[in-house]
Amino acid sequence: DDVMESRVRQFHEAVLLGRTPKAFKEMVHFQKFIHKNQEYDFTERERSKLFGVVEAYFSMFDRDSKDTGGDANERSSRGLIEDCLKVPVFNTKQKKTMLKWLDELQKKEGGAPVPSGAAPSSSLSTKKKKNPYYDEDEDEGDYGDYDDDEQT
Q1: 111: phi > 0 → left, psi -120 to 50 → alpha, else beta; which?
Q2: Which pairs from 15-20 meet CB under 8 Å and 24+ separation?
Q3: Residue 8: in which H helix or E strand, if any?
Q4: Per-residue DSSP letter, 130
Q5: Using CA atoms, how far apart are residues 65 and 79, in angstroms rounded to an integer?
Q6: Is there a contact between 54 and 96 (Cβ–Cβ < 8 Å)?
Q7: Which of 36, 71, 134, 142 sits between 20 and 30 A of 105, alpha carbons compared?
Q8: Which residues touch 131 (CB under 8 Å, ≥6 apart)?
């Protein structure tokens, strides 16, 4: 589809311009594009370009940003990366790379939550939920009258 190919090319060319005043807005727009078109069957070439765009935003906002206060610290590609991991657009190798980037961000932030200026991310929790049918406090190693020594 020529329309989709040209949109991918547009995003790719926009990110190559570097950190312009509109770069963060473009990244949020790209994030919405990925989410909206997650069911589209991108060609391998398009997929590669989309991955390149994600990588460029990661480098632009997280890897290359200097801690100068203000803008550099408030804007992050974390939301974009998290959303890209949730959609079937990217292949396993690309997603593994994105997981490494998230790990890098986590270490950089020292486990801090995502800054408020970060791109909006879907709030899917990865925390393990507590089983409401199992009371951990009740099962503190108390196994009734069972004793290993009695089995002689």
Answers
A1: left
A2: 15/52, 15/53, 15/56, 15/57, 15/60, 16/56, 18/60, 19/60
A3: helix 2-16
A4: P
A5: 16
A6: no
A7: 36
A8: none
Tokens 């991918």, located at residue: 8
C-alpha distances out from residue 38 to 33, 41, 42, 89, 122, Å? 8, 8, 9, 6, 14
Residue 4 has which token pair?
A: 């989709």
Q: Based on C-alpha coordinates, what's the Rg of the chain?
A: 22
> How far is Cα 19 from Cα 26, in angstroms, rounded to an integer?
10
24-67 residue pLDDT tens: 999 999 999 999 999 999 999 999 999 999 999 999 999 876 54
C-alpha–C-alpha distance, residues 112 and 51, integer Å: 26
pTM attached to this predicted model: 0.67
